[in-house]
Design brief:
The chain has 87 residues and is mainly β.
């Protein structure tokens, strides 16, 4: 696994417990409610690293699952971009 640099936030997720009756086709990732990544055809995607964020700034990170029925409600986290001290 690649290490993170200052201003990076990595998120991981699992398949939703309820797929609404249709297999998950992929995911959409949002940053502050703006669509950042449309991976709606990448069903094996289970992590993403937000990069280039400003250290000390709080961000709203959201993800939704997409299937043939539509897009799920977003699951969201509010996280602070940080830097890790050097050894």
């Amino acid at each position: 696994m690649n290490s993170l640099t200052a201003g990076d936030i990595r998120v991981k997720w699992q398949l939703p417990a309820d797929n609404g009756g249709s297999p998950v086709n992929g995911y959409r990732l949002y940053l502050n409610d703006i669509l950042l990544v449309d991976a709606s055809t990448q069903s094996t995607l289970n992590s993403y690293t937000y990069t280039g964020l400003s250290v000390g700034q709080t961000y709203l990170l959201s993800i939704s699952a997409v299937n043939n029925i539509g897009e799920s409600p977003k699951a969201s986290l509010s996280l602070l971009a940080a830097s890790v001290p050097q050894k």
